[in-house]
Amino acid sequence: MGTPDQVRLAGDADQVVQAVQELTSSGKQFAVRSGGHCYEDFVTNQEVRAVIDLSQLDGVYFDPRYPAFVVEPGAVLGDVYSKLYKGWGVTLPGGTCPTVGAGGHIVGGGYGALSRLHGLTVDHLYGVEVVVVDASGTARKVVATRDAADPNRELWWAHTGAGGGNFGVITKYLLRSPGATGSDPATLLPRPPANLLVSSVSWDWASMTQAAFTTLLRNFGEWCAANSSATGPYASLFSQLKPTHVSAGSFSMSTQIDAGLPNAAALLEDFLSAVNSGVGVAYQVQDQRVISWQHAVTLWPGFTAPDTRPGSRRSPPI
Ligand SMILES: Cc1cc2nc3c(=O)[nH]c(=O)nc-3n(C[C@H](O)[C@H](O)[C@H](O)COP(=O)(O)OP(=O)(O)OC[C@H]3O[C@@H](n4cnc5c(N)ncnc54)[C@H](O)[C@@H]3O)c2cc1C
User: Cα dihedral sign for 212, 218, 224, 227?
Assistant: First the structure.
């Protein structure tokens, strides 16, 4: 549990510079918080004496100067997806929990339901605006991009997977797909499928034997390995097998596939059959329907709902 002496609520990047300068000069150990979804105690631990809270820096907009989309660290994924899609019909292949903050998420990679099609979110990272402290102890704001001629390119590279809290305080992510050209925002990031065929099935723990469960896990892994191609028929199929603790009573598997594929229903059926092949325990279909992509990323409980059942590893928003 954290017991910071102060929480600095930053309203813009200059206030972040000021907070970093004052805390660095005072020698206080500080940490940054954006969406508050850290799995570790990097922010809430006894050594941290001050927290810089970036939840107010939550803009999502297009900046023609770069040209690139700006996602500020306090923006939560559900809002990022909604704003990018409603504004320009584009998206990022990021995580499925709508209350995760961009701040810690993108710098750690950002993996989600569209990653089989479009890679990680950092694959689309053009640059970062980040507050760093130089050797003389002076805090300043710098922009680092992937441009070959950018003297700060190494700093951009450090933000393509190293995780939050390592190199500085990110105040803006700049996003544009590699190879994207021109200035039309609608062409600078991936476009998601308009509709998804979604499915949730569950198995009762009471009917499961160790052998049946082993077969199920092996089937799932082997299917993923055999169908990992980004260009095969299953490229848009994404599935999460969620083997919650036995005290939950049952465990589930949620799946989505591009509903625009002419044989989407047959592909889904083949996948479900392959996963349950030889298990000997029937699954129950909890949900199967076509929903819009916008609905899927903000409301569909298969991927977005906090699972609060006993034994679950997912937690409600902090
Ligand atoms: C319920 C849940 C579901 C998740 N689902 C997914 C998923 O589908 N895909 C996936 O890839 N990940 C997922 N994650 C992991 C998530 O991406 C990471 O935990 C991420 O670091 C959370 O970012 P945050 O800003 O919400 O958290 P915070 O707790 O605010 O920050 C996390 C870390 O990043 C640092 N940090 C935060 N903001 C900044 C900043 N602006 N500059 C520098 N450092 C910063 C913090 O100091 C801390 O070390 C999930 C996590 C949870 C709790």
Answer: negative
The atom of ligand 1 lying closest to the CA of 42 is 49
Burial classification of residue 298, based on how many CB atoms lie within 10 Å of its CB (0-12 exposed, 13-18 middle, 19 or more buried): middle
What's the pLDDT tens digit per position in 33-88?
999 999 999 999 999 999 999 999 999 999 999 999 999 999 999 999 999 999 99
Q: Rounded distance, CA 162 to CA 157, Å? A: 9
Q: pLDDT tens across 110-166, in order?
A: 999 999 999 999 999 999 999 999 999 999 999 999 999 999 999 999 999 999 989
107 CA distance to ligand 1 centroid (A)? 9
How many whole angstroms from 104 Cα to the centroid of ligand 1? 4
Asked if residue 32 has its Cβ within 6 Å of ligand 1, the reply is yes
- Check if 105 has its Cβ closer than 6 Å to any atom of ligand 1: yes
Using alpha carbons only, what angle is made at residue 293 by residues 291 and 299, rounded to the nearest 5 degrees?
Answer: 75
Cβ atoms within 10 Å of 184's Cβ, excluding its own = 10
Yes or no: say if 205 and 248 are a contact pair by the CB < 8 Å rule: yes
Ligand 1 centroid to Cα of residue 38, in Å, is: 5
CA of 98 to the centre of ligand 1 (A): 12
Residue-range domains of the chain with CATH: 58-187 (3.30.465.10), 195-304 (3.40.462.20)
100 CB less than 6 Å from ligand 1? yes
Reading the block at residue 4, the tokens are 């910071």
